Amino acid sequence: MLRSSALRSFRMAAWLGWQIESNWTDPFLFAIYSIIKPLAAAGILVIMYRVVSQQAFDTPMFAYLYLGNAFYQYVSAVTTGVSWAVIDDREHYRTLKYIYVAPLNIPLYLFGRGIARFLTTTFAVLIIIAFGVWLLKMPLSLASIDWPLFLVSLLLGTIMLALVGLLLAGVTLLTARHSYYIGDAVAGALFLFTGAIFPLEVLPAYLRPIGYALPITYWLELMRRALVGQVAQAFPTFSNVSSAQLLGWLALMTLALGVVSWAVFRWCERVAREQGLIDYTSNY
Asked: 0.85 exceeded by the pTM?
């Protein structure tokens, strides 16, 4: 019974999230928007790299920053998708109080709401990578991809990001609607510390421990290794660490994050119930 209720909560939330994300326009315009947006973002990065480095696009450095930037889009999308559902249901649709009295698993409902952002971001990442391989001659081929490592890392990373989103959703329960950018704010704040566009060695020595403490750093490294293998391992950050070790560290950090996120969300949820914030609307 509990399993069927949890599955129903997740499945219906995923369906609802997709309807909200995609039904704002007709399918043709949505497809055009989904293609143009990631290409524009990739184009800005390509121009910056060309102007600053004056190097070709087939170098290891370009593959490093291009793939890191592409996969980092998941960070903002998944964390915001999960945490934004609180604001959306409480402030916009004003249905959060009804959701709480319904027989739903709230964390799984929030995870389901984040699925739509994950799917649209996956489409964007595929377009960006295809653009890099086809037009920019990035050294990537389907035959060289480590598919088991790629799929396991993507699944584990998605769970990790969803747990970050759950933690932020708990904080959002206690704040007014101006926190609707909290996922984007956190993603932006961590961007420079995760090795997304340059190795951690570029940072001052006193800032590098921040990067090593973030599970996103290990996830991005694993995604690069799965796609471009030796190109990613040529950089010094984790050159002496195997992919299996990185995967183990990411799994342990995700487990620890899950315990912290669950505890924080339940505490924030209890406080929100006691202070009457479940049906709170800030109206500005």
From this structure: yes
